[in-house]
Amino acid sequence: LCALLQHGKDSPTTQERVKAWTDCILDRLVGITASGGRAVAIEVAEECLSVPFQRLIPLMSEDMRERLADCLGEHALLHMDEAQQKNLLEGLGAEAKCPVLIERIEALMASCTKELNTWLALAPRFPFTPLALADALARAEHPLLRFFTFARQPSQKEAFLMAVALCLQSLRTRLRWMGSAEPVLERLSHDLQQRLFFVKNQGAVMEIWLASRLKKYNEEAAGRVASILAQPGVPKLLPLKTKLLPLLPPLPESDDQPGDWVELDGPSPLADAVAEWLGEDAANFKPPQHTLSFDTLRNLLLRAGRWIEVDREQPRIRLAPASVAAPSLQMLTQKPAPLPPPPLPPPALPSPTSDGESQRSPGPSPVDESGQGEVDNLIDLLMNEALAPVNPEMRNLVQKVSHGVYRVSGKEVTLHTVSGALYVYRIGDSIKYMPIKSLLIEEGLLPSEEVAGSRQGSAPPVDTSS
Length: 466
Fold this sequence. Notes:
alpha+beta; 3-stranded antiparallel β-sheet; 49% helix
């Protein structure tokens, strides 16, 4: 304290005095024995919580704080009861608003979570080998990580536990062979389950806890997908496509062929991108990495548009051929074009009878009466004929998107002709086979045939009063 008052907190003399006091405490902890460890640990804890030492904590460098926290976690906390542990964990540095032990615990959790998630996404490709996993799990056995419950952010605690649990689960499923390649993984897996997932009177509950959390995250993701797809025009699908395109193999340049398949039988950057997309503009939905199942991804990607192809039998996806994806891509990137307006009436023609008669213009043509516009192909012609009896105000619900594709009441409808008649081929991603008139009746643009027939064929009421 005298050095601080004389030279200031940034002075080398002050730093030397702080380091000397900290080294004295660490030397006393390192030299304790099992028999007298509890007494020394309590004595050191009281000294660390004293007012003079607490005032020096803001002057310590980051390395010095880490050394102090690691030494207390390895040699002091294990010899204390729960009340003493809590007092030291929460009290050291609390006055200066820099809790040394809690900050160190959070830093260790963040580094372990990132390392395990990276390994899980890229294993078993080199250098993400069984030996690399053994090293990462050994770092997760740090003495301070026993007290992960003291971390201040619940989401950080859950992300850390999910990363550990998913790695340990992979050793029992798709990466089971790694246990034979690196036998130490079995011991590390058992120790971590006993340390992080042990519940009194129940034992290790990692499998039950992991299954319940995965179910919760995927149910929340399904609800989030439903709310996004219910938005008019589904504007968030274009940002999803922007995120996923760089993660998929590109289409061949020569032929109209699909891209290569991308396997989704485990954690992948594509699944993480979808989870990040789902979490945008949703403060209450922030799932940890590698928690979305393939069923959740498939239900979303099947509705993302025809630019992506999902295998219904195997967990894999790829880019669809350009010819298949073109209408859907145009729908996502361009505003739909309205139906062509009706043509102007033709100019008046002179009468061929005599020169003296006054000229008159012909009456309205059948095209004008039906409200048809200019057409580019047979589908447009038949569509205009089907829309002839539709109220002009209701016609605004039908818009042309591209060749053979219309939007009817907000639904993307693909049309085709059969023997000169217009039929619906696809509505959204569902294959349909129905006349266009039936679709217009279902959407309420045309009255049903029963109602129309009853209106035309109904007779006047008979007077039976006499």
